[in-house]
Amino acid sequence: MDVVSSVYTLTVGIVQFIAEHETKDNTISQIWNTTVTIQQIIKPLLNQKLADKALQLTIQGLQVTLRDINDHLVAWEHPAKKMYSVVNPWALNQELKGDLDQLMRQYLLLVGALQAFHYTRSYTVTQPPMRNTGLTSLAKQKSRHSTTYSGASSSRVAMSSSQVGLIWQTFLGKELDFCRVDAFINGLCQYMQRDFSSTERQRLLLKLDEKGMGYIFYSSFVALVGPEQVAEAISYYASDPRLPLLVWIDDSIRNNKSRVEDARKYGVTVVQLTSTGSAKRWLTVNKGFLRKHDNGRHIRYITDQVRIEPNENGAYFENWHAGDQIVDFIRKEMKLRAPILVYTNGWSLSVTRYVDGYTNTGSLAGSYGVFRNYVFQLGARKTDTPTLKFNMSS
Prior knowledge:
Layout: H1 3-20, H2 26-42, H3 53-75, H4 79-87, H5 89-118, E1 123-126, H6 134-144, H7 155-159, H8 163-171, E2 178-180, H9 181-192, H10 198-208, E3 215-217, H11 218-225, H12 230-238, E4 245-249, H13 257-265, E5 269-273, H14 276-285, H15 287-292, E6 299-303, E7 307-310, E8 316-319, H16 322-333, E9 340-344, E10 361-365, H17 368-379
């Protein structure tokens, strides 16, 4: 039995044991409540292969603690122990308090490890500045996408006073740092006094629950909202992207920052996706929108060729076929025809000869002029594009 299954089985046993032995003891009640919460967190992990070492070690530590608690609870049912607890109830109480303290520490470690594991920046949207909105609005738009993960320790401070925190406590996670996806969506509908379409819900979950864990952390909600009002931020990610749109698939968001800013200056919205998997999910969710506007005047694509990205087990590797895999997906699976540019380096350019096998697809190595023209034409909503081919920088 793997460690996740073992932990889940232990939680089931402890919860059932305490339920069968009705008690008004406050410490045992807290152990029961905390174990139920851990059970809810662990359950979505049962069918996943975890490659994250920090999360694995945290779950192993939790396994030891739960095993100790289970052994202690069962041991106190032994006749000799029962008699001892009658004579000296303080001993039982102290042992259980020690168990509860250790369980709470492991619970907090689990939540922290899961938030770090759960949080990714594999999907960001950067819109061009609105006309006549001034420098304040421009700075506000920039700050939305520079938001970084602050970890579990800061969430409680913000939760007590921020708009996000008040909404979370009132409609969503109550006193917990996470809530189930369905509870989150229902609470959000209640707060915003509107329903969300299936596509809108899926778009939000691409940002809030990218790994499909089945629950949403408070810290992920904070990261999505950033400095904006909640309703504005939710609409931002749930709605159709503004046109013209550049979909950019590259594992290095930071290195492309200046080029993304150039695209914004040309009036282009940029969706950045950092892995083949996240790109496929985003493209699939937005399939209807992409097909409706499937031409070079409205939408264009850029991908790198080689990406450091997770495999199906979550382990990161250097994927030399990332470019051809996503091009093949866009053309054959999605059946989209808008221009695709494989924007790579000189050392991997030779791998991109496959582009000549697709229509409206080209590659280049580091030529800023070609890139700028490609994006400028999109911003100008031009339909006439230069012939896309292998090695356009030559």
